[in-house]
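Problem: given the chain below (129 residues), write out its structure.
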Amino acid sequence: MQLLRHIAKPHAQAPPLQSNGSKTMRPGKCILISPWVTMDHTSPSVARNKDVDILAKECGDRWAWNWKGGHVDEFTDPITVPPEEWDLILPLTLIISGQKEMMYDDIQRFCMNVKQVRNQMEVLTAGRM
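Solution.
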């Protein structure tokens, strides 16, 4: 998701991607499988699914800290991107997640944000019983 964001709106500390004569670097379609949309791991599904998700909160917290430290912006936590910007960032997109995932609530919140402006998105949730 950070790469898609960088293609649409380059990060100030990284050079923009250059195309090799093609019209655009933006892909035509995208599949996001259990996207990591926030690094804070505080949503209710973190506690609710702690005994069933293979990912442990402590590991996720450590990986997030090692990757970004205390820094939070639209590149580290895509859920902070204003909904109206997703129309410029995401192509036709399929998002897949499972109800028993630790980050399920964050992914659903992200999907609601994107769906405010992006009708060409399909959300599949595994594990409905």
